[in-house]
DNA sequence: TCTTGACCTTCCCATCGTTGGAACCTTCAT
DNA sequence: ATGAAGGTTCCAACGATGGGAAGGTCAAGA
C-alpha cells in the first residue's frame, strides 16, 4: 500500500506521514523495489491512532509516549490516565484563557454602538486599557501557548 | 527612551518590538546618534495598544487593521465592532473545539481504572476509535487552528 | 583614563505542526 | 510512446517568540 493510500485510509496526510517518520515518531516504512514506501494495515492502524490522539490535542511528543504505552502490553492504565489528565488540564487552562478573552471582547462589543460614529469603546479600551466596567486583562498568566489543531 | 525602557513601559519585549518594526506593523523607530532606537511616549502608547490587542487574541495582521482604525479619526465604530465580533467568533470556535477534546478525554479518563492493570479505555479508544459510549471525534471540522497566547 | 557591566545593534537559529513547491523518478492507463 | 498521477528528496514558509553570538555604546566607579 502506497503512502497516498495509507494517507487516505488513516486521515494523516502523506506529508505528515513522512514527517512523523523523519522525526522518529513512527519507524521507517518498508520500501518497495521502486523506492516507494510500503504500508501495511498495521501501519495504517498506527497512523489512525496518531491521528486520533492529535484530534484530542496531544502534542506529537506526547503521542510518542502514548504509542509506547500502547505497544507495552504490561503497561499500567494509571500511566495512560495520568497523561490524559495532564492533557485535560492543559486544555482547560487554554479554554479559560480564551474564554477570558472572549468575555472581555464581548463586553466591549456590547458597549459599542457599531454605527458610523467614530467613537468606539473597543478602540478606547485598547488605547487606554480602560473602558466602562471592563476588567483588565491578566498579563501573561495562563497565556495560551502555541497549540495546533 | 531606549528600546529596553519602551519594552518595560509597554509590556512588549524588545525582541518583539524589533519584530513588529521589521514586519511593518509599526514604523521604523527614530534613531539616536549612536544608532540606538529612540522611542517617544506616543510610541509606547502604540505598543501598549498592540500588547492589549494581543492579549485579546488578535493576530498581528488583525492588529494592523485595528491600528489603522485607531489612527483614522473618521472611522466608523461599526468597522471596529466587526473585527471584534469576528474575533469573538474565532475564539468561540476554538473554545468549542477544545471543549470537545476535553470532554472526550474526560469521558475516557472516567472510564479508566487508573490502576496497575494494563487494560485502559483511553488506549482502546485511540486504537479503535471506539470505547464505551464515547462519541467519535469530528474529523477536521472546526479544528483549532494555530493560535498563540 | 580605563574598566566593567549593562544595554544596544544585527544576524541567525529553533520552536511546533503543517503545507507548498521544485526537480526528478515510477507506475499505470490510454 | 506518451501523459497523468503519484511517488521520492530537499528546501522554505507560516506566526509569534525566545536564545544566543559578535560587536558597538554608554554610564558609573577605580
Outline the structure in words.
The structure is a homodimer of 149-residue chains. With 149 residues, the first copy, chain A, is mainly α. The first copy, chain A, has helices at residues 3-10, 14-22, 41-55, 60-71, 77-111, 121-128; strands at 30-31, 37-38. A two-stranded antiparallel sheet of chain A has the order 1-2. In chain A, strand 1 (30-31) and strand 2 form a beta hairpin. The longest helix of chain A has 35 residues, at 77-111. Chain A is elongated and about 70 Å long. The relative contact order of chain A is 0.09. Chain A binds a DNA duplex (30 and 30 nucleotides) through residues 2-4, 13-16, 18-19, 34-37, 54, 59-61, 146-149.
Describe the protein's topology.
Two copies of one chain form a homodimer.
Chain A: H1 3-10, H2 14-22, E1 30-31, E2 37-38, H3 41-55, H4 60-71, H5 77-111, H6 121-128
Antiparallel strand pairs in A: 1-2
Chain A binds a DNA duplex (30 and 30 nucleotides) through α2.
